[in-house]
């Protein structure tokens, strides 16, 4: 772990493999050189083949699993073709599952190995965080949830109502002292839900919070944000995190996402795709949105120069601006349960 921390802080990042492993790693160099949609990866990309799978599939993931968006995409492809598939998602990271995930794997796998059918259940089983309970559904995303915009407001507010005329908010992002990643999505240990109050006290993190809820608000599905943003530099990142604030003031992360901009020095709407989720905000709690420009080392820090992460050695601090007014309606878009 010490070697990994030193590697993540290495400049240029292209030397990270030598720092951590004592040698060059072709895989690490490939990841640094080729982005996710680069044709270089085409030979290893089997997305176009998923819909042709005919064997029964049980897909087990977690709300803080690094592979969750791809898993859900593949399940939907099987679902659309009416393939024999089912989905189980718990409150886990990639390597941490409880007995529910293990039992599903064993019941499903052993039954098919014996030429039998696994125990009957609906195709989709989800752990609803906040409610802390399992529930079954017919599909992903479940029916009965509609997109609802919660708008950023002046003074750190968050509300369904449109924002009034107001001055924007500002913060300074310095990649030499990058905004840290606190829990959240992980491939290994240290992820999941955690109190974010120390993170939210940083000067490079903006927070927007609703009034105390007078009724439960349940969300299940895809989450996104539209943040009207401008930087003093052309290259910048926008990180958005959704949190649940309990009556004691503890702010626990639910899901988050980041987008990199190459025209950030112009006022524009940054669309951020957050991780999908299933969560119930209880009455008496509040909904909170964080806006910042990083989550290091989960995401490589943006040097602000436009250079490749593999070769950048210069780090530039940036002055960031977030707008929330009628002409710039910044918002998080949540999949809210229909009123009963």
Write structural notes for this entry.
This protein is of the alpha+beta class and 340 residues long. 16% of the residues lie in helices and 31% in strands. The strands form four sheets. Strands 5, 6, 7, 10, 13, 16 and 17 form a seven-stranded antiparallel sheet that branches. Strands 1-2-3-4 form a four-stranded mixed sheet, with helices on both faces. A four-stranded antiparallel sheet has the order 8-15-11-12, with no helix packed on it. Strand 2, helix 5 (99-113) and strand 3 form a beta-alpha-beta unit. The longest helix has 15 residues, at 99-113. The radius of gyration is 21 Å and the shape is globular. The protein starts with a helix and ends with a strand. The model has no long low-confidence stretch (mean pLDDT 94).
């Amino acid at each position: 772990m010490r070697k990994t921390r030193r590697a993540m802080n290495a400049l240029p990042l292209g030397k990270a493999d030598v720092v951590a492993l004592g040698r060059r790693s072709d895989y690490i160099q490939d990841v640094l050189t080729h982005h996710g949609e680069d044709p270089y990866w085409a030979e290893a990309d089997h997305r176009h083949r998923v819909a042709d799978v005919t064997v029964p599939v049980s897909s087990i993931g977690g709300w803080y699993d690094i592979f969750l968006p791809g898993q859900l995409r593949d399940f939907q492809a099987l679902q659309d073709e009416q393939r024999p598939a089912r989905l189980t998602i718990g409150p886990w990271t990639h390597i941490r599952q409880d007995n529910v995930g293990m039992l599903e794997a064993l019941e499903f796998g052993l039954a098919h190995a014996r030429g039998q059918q696994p125990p009957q259940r609906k195709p989709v089983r989800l752990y609803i965080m906040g409610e802390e309970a399992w529930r079954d559904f017919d599909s992903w995303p479940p029916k009965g949830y509609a997109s609802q915009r919660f708008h950023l407001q002046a003074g750190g507010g968050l509300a369904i109502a449109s924002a009034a005329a107001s001055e924007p908010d500002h913060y300074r992002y310095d990649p030499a002292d990058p905004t840290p990643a606190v829990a959240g999505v992980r491939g290994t240990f240290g992820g999941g839900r955690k109190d974010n109050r120390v993170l939210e006290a940083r000067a490079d993190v903006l927070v927007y919070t609703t009034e105390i809820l007078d009724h439960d608000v349940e969300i299940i599905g895809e989450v996104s944000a539209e943040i009207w943003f401008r930087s003093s530099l052309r290259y910048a990142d926008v990180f958005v995190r959704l949190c649940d604030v309990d009556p004691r003031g503890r702010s626990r992360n639910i899901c988050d996402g980041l987008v990199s901009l190459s025209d950030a020095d112009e006022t524009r709407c940054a669309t951020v795709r957050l991780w999908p989720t299933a969560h119930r905000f209880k009455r008496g709690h509040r909904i909170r949105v964080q806006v910042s420009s990083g989550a290091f080392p989960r995401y490589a820090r943006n040097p602000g120069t436009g250079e490749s992460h593999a070769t950048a050695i210069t780090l530039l601090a940036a002055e960031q601006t977030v707008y929330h007014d009628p002409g710039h309606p910044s918002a998080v878009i949540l999949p809210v349960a229909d009123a009963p």
